[in-house]
Amino acid sequence: MANVIEAAGVGTICLSTIPPLTRNTGAARVVGLSHPMGSTLGRPGDADGQREVLRAALEAGASLTEPRGYVELPFEWPERRAEAIREPDPPPPIAQLLTRRPWLLPRLVSGRLP
Amino acid sequence: MDPYRYLPFISRQVMQAWADRERPPADVAWTPLDRPLADCRVALITSAGIAPRSGEPFDQQRERDDPWWGDPSWRAIPADATEADVMVCHLHVAHEPIERDLDVALPARRLGELAADGVISEANHRHFSIMGYVLDATELVATTAPELASELLADDVDLALLVPV
User: Fold this and answer.
1) Which of B21, B42, B68 minimises the CB distance to A114?
2) SS3 B76
3) For residues A9 and A5, what is the distance between their CA atoms, to the nearest angstrom?
4) CB-CB neighbors (< 8 A) of B23 in chain A
5) Mutate to test the interface with B, among A23, A51, A59 (most CBs of B within 10 A)
6) How far is CA B150 from CA A8, A9, B130, in A?
7) Cα Rg for chain A, rounded, in angstroms?
8) CA distance linking residue A113 with residue A109, whole number of Å
9) Alpha carbon distance A12, B160 (integer Å)
10) What pLDDT, in 10s, does the model give residues B70-116?
11) Which residues of chain B are within 8 Å of residue A65 when distances are taken between CB atoms?
12) Measured between beta carbons, which residues in chain A are less than 8 angstroms from residue B10?
């Protein structure tokens, strides 16, 4: 995604909560952040915290001068891990399918989709 | 940082395997920022599956019918959209934090505040969303990304911030 947009002539910054994955997709500028999925910028209602993260992400990303540049933001999530992980209810269709048919899990991992 | 810290056990195993498997392309495209951040018009692209209520939602029923499929299309969202104007169409993330406060996944209000503070020149008048669960990226790369790039160019956007959920 980022690679295509960069090639078209628009600069990109990829904020990422899973930087090893994002960095391997060929993104031009990656900014790593240790926040839970689904609450990337911060907690709901915490406008000051969200603005601080957004500003840091833009400034850190814009400061990268080489392709595949990477920088990590120092923010820490204020809740314990167990409280921070919020799973969808019901579980995603793929999770429900793999609970019924666990032998299909290697297909998901390898990318050899049925 | 532990990049897998906030993932449930199985998701952690899958994401680690994907990260190990993925090989970056030999040529990484690069558009230098030819001006300071304070002179940039910025647009957001979230993967939260956010769609305006006035339009088509992302197709969640087809994913329920075929869990290996995910909707690879995109939506434009006006910069002044509120929680009441949009729906979250993503079967892989908890909706509640985003429905309470859109800015956790699409920080359009925060971006407007940074423009007012002079950190950036301008927030674009609209932002964009895809739905991040797309296992087969063929259409995402061949169609969605080029279309989004055209929209960004048409809006004279200098910098796009991609926000994952």
Assistant:
1) B68
2) strand
3) 7
4) 24
5) A51
6) 8, 10, 15
7) 17
8) 9
9) 5
10) 999 999 999 999 999 999 999 999 999 999 999 999 999 999 999 99
11) 32
12) 95
